[in-house]
Design a protein that fits this description.
Chain lengths: 276, 403
Amino acid sequence: MSQTRLEKRFADLKEEGRGGLVTFVTAGDPDFETSLEIVKGLPDAGADVIELGMPFSDPMADGPAIQASSLRALRNGMTLSKTLDLVRAFRQDNQDTPIILMGYYNPIYIYGVDKFLADAKTAGVDGFIIVDLPPEHDDEFCIPTLDQGLHFIRLTTPTTVGGRLPKVLNNTSGFVYYVSILGITGTAAASDSAIHDAVARLKAETDLPVAVGFGIRTPEQAANVATVADAAVVGSAIIDTLKENLDDDNQAKPGLSQAVLEYVRTLADGVRGSRT
Amino acid sequence: MTTPNSYMNGPDERGHFGIFGGRYVAETLMPLILEVEKAYDAAKADPSFQKDYDYYAKHYVGRPSPLYFAERLTRELGGAKIYFKRDELNHTGSHKANNVLGQILLARRMGKKRIIAETGAGQHGVATATFCALFNLPCVVYMGATDIARQAPNVFRMKLLGAEVIGVESGTGTLKDAMNDALRDWVTNVEETFYIIGTAAGPHPYPVMVRDFQSIIGREAKEQMREAEGRLPDQLVACIGGGSNAIGLFHPFLDDKEVAITGVEAAGFGVKTDKHAASLTGGKPGVLHGNRTFLLQDDDGQIQDAHSISAGLDYPGIGPEHSWLHDIGRVNYASASDTEALEAFQMLSKVEGIIPALEPAHALAHVTKIAPDMDKDKIILMNLCGRGDKDIFTVAEALGVEI
Ligand SMILES: Cc1ncc(COP(=O)(O)O)c(C=O)c1O
């Protein structure tokens, strides 16, 4: 079977001998055009994989930064089908950088699973992270996703222990996302040694690449994570930079996307320097 | 759709009632939820757990609650005989105590050291704070900022009882947002914390667990009704927020085909407006807070804000078992508006000397609609699940009275 875009990206990273940078932004935050500008600029700024948040009214696993980001996007008219439009527009000039959609199940359920998967595939989506679909509900969306040849990336957490890990890894594809803390996005960071141990534990159970996220805020942290894991995921910190460039009405100030991309570049420099 | 042999067998082992229910939660919570299920199954099978429950239910909560024939109201409405199951007389003023007692005993069995809860009207928060005081456990209650403003007496009660009340600003600052933040707390403090969910919703096993604890209402009522009338009632009525008092009354009667059952949702300004909380009447199936159920939502699957004058009914979802009972047609779901509830609230105060909570005032509004057209030998049993002390400020404001 030929490699998917996501598999190729991790294979290339391995060849280059460095960890990757996975960046999270919410689709449509603060508005469609600005968001597209950011996403289009991410590969050049050094993002190896793009995670794109599908805005949801009730993001239960997210902290204040991503909650607010989701609401800004929704207030400016973002919808799930516009998220796919954004991916489609991105794919016009980029065929190499994988895009993973991340979010919650309800908007997909309402869109219709089969139709959504077909539309997402055509738009150029590579996979999904759906926070509220544990393995217990694999028949609902995970299996149909794999049947379409797309990836279903699962979160594993510090509570995924004992006999549960194989269950979580089963049907996971593309990479495994290790949530390094107990909690929601944008809060505390785990210690380097805890991350190191957890990644080692995962690596003993799976050949899939392991990305680590939640709580990574600085180029130094990203660099440290990238020395032990296959990729570091940064979200809330990028969104905080975005937020600093909003006016009082939560609209983009001039230079917003450049500021966000500049910050991503510092993260990428950190990650790239980490194993030399 | 085939009619099941019994309506009382659900859910299946994955927590499904038909297509509803399930456990749609983040991986961090999954192991704990499985642990709660295991602990609950073990507790159910342990006579000492039941014995503890019965002890506190009797001596602390004040059960059994009376079954009361509302004679004046019956005469006033001129039709069916109206009975109330008086759970408003429970310690803490509502049915919420039945559930909190069960869950806190379970939390103790599991060795949990910290309790969290969400609350809308504050009744569940007060009940949780009360039992935390009794069992000396730290208690954190999440409550929407809007609800904090309109249920001030309950906020103060919770604080007196030693609980920490955290105001939730996200969303519209009502029950759903409080539940989001409680879930966020839980993922963060999963190891030592037990989340006492206040209604028959959330991920499996919560809907079934809450139902089981609340079913004490229906079991008692059935026996009391046989004693009072020598037969079962013709019609049950209860209000629906998340659906816990309703399922508690309904469940023991589900297989008694001769008993008609009606749940009353909050119609707010009217179910045809965008300001109501009637998820079955005005919503469609979706996934939120760990279960698939009827939800108020837009075409993009974004959850919409509910509205009701009653903070306890102001929730855009409903417990999954109700969605199933609605789907298969065993229970009929009606609605009552803010205005109708306010009228019923005042009527009961004057006619029976009982100030009801705004939540059961919705059930009562429905009773006043159907009772006059029923024969005098018919019997309606309504769950009077809460008292109205907490609501007098809201009602005064709605009536334009300054106090
Ligand atoms: C008195 C009373 N009745 C009803 C409700 C609604 O909840 P449920 O539908 O779970 O009974 C509440 C919730 O706060 C309440 O306080």
